[in-house]
Design goal:
Length: about 80
């Protein structure tokens, strides 16, 4: 099990997310961002917009960076 923050995954806050797999971490990250946007948090909306407005190559680079952060994060 690994622990990363929203900020580690390109977001604006230090909320901690815990997951067994990179895919699960991605799902939890998306869920967190959606919840924050629904609560009216503009900083999470801006972070989500950056991801969706990035080019395909930029998105691939971000995902590679996030996956690396997950892989090197210590087990909790």
């Amino acid at each position: 099990m690994k622990k990363l923050t929203c900020r580690d995954l390109g977001g604006p806050c230090d909320a901690e997310l815990v997951a067994d797999t990179f895919e699960e971490m991605g799902n939890k990250s998306r869920q967190h961002v959606v919840e924050q946007i629904q609560a009216g948090d503009e900083s999470h909306k801006l972070a989500a917009d950056r991801m969706t407005e990035a080019t395909l190559d930029e998105q691939k680079a971000m995902m590679a960076e996030f996956k690396h952060k997950f892989e090197v994060a210590p087990d909790v």
